[in-house]
Amino acid sequence: MGLLDDKVTIVTGAGRGIGAAAARLFAREGALLVLAARSGAEVEALAAELRAGGARAVAVAADLTTAEGAERTVGAALTTYGRLDGAFDNAGSGLSPAPLAERSEAEWDDTHALNLRGSWLCLRAQLRAMAAGGRGGAVVLNSGVGALVGGFGDGVQQAAKHGLTGLVKAATADYARHGIRVNAVAPGVVRTPSTERFFASGPEFDALVVRSTPLGRAGSDTEIAEAAAWLLSDRASYVAGVTLPVDGGITATRRFD
Questions:
Q1: Which backbone phi and psi does 117 adopt, to 5 degrees?
Q2: How far is CA 78 from the centre of its chain?
Q3: Number of other CB atoms surrounding residue 81 within 10 Å
Q4: How many helices (H) and strands (E) does the chain have?
Q5: Burial grade of 185 (CB within 10 A; 0-12, 13-18, 19 or more)
Q6: Looking at the domain assignment, is residue 49 inside a domain?
Q7: Which is nearest to 31 in space by CA: 73, 84, 76, 71?
Q8: Are 224 and 194 in contact, with CB atoms under 8 Å apart?
Q9: Is residue 42 part of a domain?
């Protein structure tokens, strides 16, 4: 028996990085998967890989900043498996560091469209399906340490991540009585394809990671996926409304500098 055995689970932003790592881990833990991302080719390839290994997985090419994309992803779960038990709303994007007053309106709009509005649209569709199904369920949002602490050069994204903390709390207040648990993971510095440019910029970034992270290293995409899998599983059955740091100790020591 895996952590997610027979649980119909959506993973958004599943084409690469943390989302792809989560899809592979959830498959090993027995989940029945719906993989969604804007890049249909990437999620189709990943779904095929998982099916070749004996898992059940379908792919959905969807713009998750739109209600249509969010609802179509949930619809794929209901059509394919007849229900929805869980979701890891991982789709998101980041910005290179810059002071808050130097950010443009376009950067604000683009960042919040995916990181906050898109997460809300996905969560809304998932909550409706789970409440209507009457079986309960679990949703995990992928947030970040910016939801819990301040940091230099990341104010626009931090505002979006703080918004996710509010969504987690509001959804818990509204839907816990339906047996639906909503939580978030808050990764620290994680090495993924989207962050590789920072590591490639020179030894100064590695030194910053070591200095600001008590465990002295960046996290891996699989380590974030492991935390999400636990929160989605029945082993976390009394955990609701939490934004869980998975950050190597950054938030424990307030050394995010």
A1: -60, -45
A2: 21
A3: 18
A4: 10, 9
A5: buried
A6: yes
A7: 84
A8: no
A9: yes
Give the single-character DSSP code of 195.
T
Number of domains in the chain: 1
Each residue's pLDDT, cut to its tens digit, for the chain (257 residues) gives: 899 999 999 999 999 999 999 999 999 999 999 999 998 899 999 999 999 999 999 999 999 999 999 999 999 999 999 999 999 999 877 777 788 888 899 988 988 898 999 999 999 999 999 999 999 999 999 999 888 887 655 788 889 999 999 999 999 999 999 999 999 999 998 988 877 777 778 788 888 888 889 999 999 999 999 999 999 999 999 999 999 999 999 888 855 45
Range of the domain at 74: 8-246
- Amino acid identity of 55? A
Residue 187 belongs to a domain with what CATH number?
3.40.50.720
* Residue 253 lies inside a defined structural domain of this protein: no
Asked if 168 contacts 243 with a C-beta cutoff of 8 angstroms, the reply is: yes
Residues forming beta bridges with residue 140, ordered by sequence position: 88, 183
Q: Which residue has the tokens 């958004």?
A: 12
Q: Looking at residue 19, what DSSP letter applies?
A: H
- Note the residue count of the chain: 257
Domain presence at residue 256: no
Residue 87 parent element (H or E): strand 86-89
Query: CB under 8 Å, gap of 24 or more: what pairs does 192-199 form?
Result: 192/16, 192/17, 192/18, 192/221, 193/16, 193/17, 194/16, 194/17, 194/93, 194/94, 195/94
